[in-house]
Each structure stands twice: as C-alpha cells, then as structure tokens.
Amino acid sequence: MRKLIIFALVGFGAQLVDGAMGMGYGVTSTSLLLLAGLTPVVASASVHLAELGTNIASALTHWKLGNVDWRLVARLGVPGAVGAFAGATFLSKLSTEASAPVMAAILLALGAYILIRFAVRPPRVADARVSPHGKKLLAPLGLFGGFVDATGGGGWGPVTTTTLVSAGKTSPRTVVGSVDTSEFLVTASASLGFLIGLGTAGINFAFVGALLVGGLLAAPLAAWLVSRLPATILGVAVGGLVIVTGLRTLTKSVEVVAANAGTLRTVALVAWAAAVVWAVIRHRRDRRAAPTTLNVRRVDGIPTTVPDAVGAGER
Predict the structure, then answer these.
(1) Which of 272, 222, 211, 207 is CA-nearest to residue 245?
(2) Helix ranges (DSSP H) in the chain
C-alpha cells in the first residue's frame, strides 16, 4: 500500500510538471520509478500505460480550449508512433544490465537539455495558431522524439515541444496542445511495442493504476500551476532532478567506485542549486524591470519580456 501511495504521488507530481511545461511526465516519473527499484523496461512500460489515460484527459482539455492544430498533430504524431514502437521493441530486447545504462544516459542527456534550455535561453514566443512547419521538419522530429520517448521512458515533450517553441513560429499554447494531443499516438504505439516484447510479465498494473490516478487528479491543477509558477524556474528544477536521478542510476549500473559516484552526485547537486538560484534571480530581475522598460507577458507559463516600443504587430 505504501508503494502505491508513492507511485500515485509520483504520477501527481509528474502531471503537474507536464501540465505546466508541456513536457516532463515521462522523464520525471521514469526517473523516480528507477529510484524505486523498477527495471528500466518495466519503468518505461508502466509509465506509457499510465500515460494513455492522462494523454486523453490532456488532449480533451486542449481541444476544448482551442489549442490543437490537427494538421500538426497528424504530421508529428504518425512518425512519432513509428519511432515509439521501434524504441519500445529495441528496449524490450535488451537485458536488464544493458538497458539500465542506456536509459540512464538518455535521461541524463534529456535532463541536461531541459536545464540548459530554460536556464540559458528560455523559448521565444510567437502568436501563430497554425503551425507553418512542413513534413521535412516534423517527420524526422516525430520519428526521433518517439524513439527517445520509448527508450528513455520519456522525452517526447523535451524533444518536440522545445524544438517547435524555440523556432518562434507557432504560439506556445498551440505547440503544447498539439504535442500533448499527438502524444497519445506515441504512447499507444510504445505501449503496444512493450506488450508485444514483454507480454504482461513484470508489469504491475496496480503500480500503473496508481500512476494514472495521481496523474488524473493533478490534471485540473496543472492549469492553475501554469499561471502561478514561471516555466523557466520549473524547467531548471525538473532538468536538475532528472540529471541527479539519472546520474545515480548510471553510476550504479556501470559500477563506479562509491567515492567517485558520491563526488559526481555532489557536483551535480551544487550545479543544480546554482542553476535554480540563477533562474530565480533572473526572473525577479525581469519582474522589477517590467514597469519601466519591459512588458512581461506570460504565454502558457513562459515569462516573455518584450520592449515597450515594440507594437503588437511586430511581436
């Protein structure tokens, strides 16, 4: 019963992160499930099965709010589903010993990407509600994002959302809504791949249910959170969490000497704390500057500073 409560809390927290940033459910929950002792393949399979429910809830919400570009959903989600099935099949074929360092390395890379992306150069903001991107970008982006998502236990959002938002051609709310909606195709395809590769062996559906319940309970609160907590600070916090947990799994799986592993984790913690402090300082600085020199707008939780002299048509 204690484990079920812990997994429900993991699902709750991961969904709050995902709802605020349009990413993070998979990488956050998978990282914490690995710390709880699940094998990489079972952790990823459990997360994807639970995500089927949270994806539907999220997609319906975004659709009702008018945040979905169905053309973007199709062009991104279909190749994403193909990549996710290939990634799930690949991970299912690896032994536990081989899959642990692979997943830990992917999580480390995703965590570093999220942290650096939000700490150094927060995504730009555009106003277009229909994405101008074509198949040349979306097909390979979806294929890669789906493969990373299945093998890393998450990554669809960090790969696709940050790429499309940082391109500065589509409104963040449209990107987040469309990516979250297309994620159902990715999640369903990955889940099918895991069930074919693993069957139901090793998958504890009680754990899956606990993750799902926690995520569903968090979904209504995510809209409130996105309006209260700056995505830049949240992104840095989540990126650091994924790095620290991924580093712990990696050092254990490759049998790093305990002293060296402790040093690496200490360095990572110090760097994470420094990045969070820097994000908070920059956010407070931008808020102080807003009344005299800048207009600070929040679009889907992303604080954006725009000079007063720039008109709405030029943004």
Answers:
(1) 272
(2) 2-21, 25-35, 40-64, 70-93, 96-120, 135-152, 156, 162-166, 172-198, 205-226, 231-253, 258-289
Decide if 231 is inside a domain. Answer: yes
Distance between CA atoms of 137 and 75, rounded to whole angstroms?
9
Report the Cα–Cα distance between both ends of the chain, in Å, rounded: 52
Can you read off the two tokens belonging to residue 50? 């639970």
Residue 97 CA neighbour count, 13 Å, CB half = 2
For the residues 119-138, what does the mean pLDDT come to?
73
Do the domain assignments include residue 312?
no
Distance between CA atoms of 25 and 261, rounded to whole angstroms? 27
Number of domains observed in the structure of the chain: 1
- DSSP letter (8 states) at residue 123: P
Whether residue 311 is contained in a domain is answered as no
Q: Are 153 and 47 in contact (CB under 8 A)?
A: yes
Please report whether residue 313 resides in a domain: no
Contact 146, 109 (CB under 8 A): no
- 45: nearest Cα among 204, 213, 210, 238: 204
What is the Cα–Cα distance from 86 to 151, expressed in whole angstroms?
9
Which range, of 86-100, 122-136, 230-244, averages the lowest pLDDT? 122-136
3-state secondary structure of 201: coil
* CA–CA dist 73, 78 (Å, integer): 8
pTM of the model as a whole: 0.72
Mean pLDDT score of the chain:
78
φ, ψ of residue 303 in degrees (nearest 5): -70, 130
Range of the domain at 131: 2-305
pLDDT reading at 231 higher than 70: no
Burial of 311 (0-12, 13-18, 19+ CB in 10 A): exposed
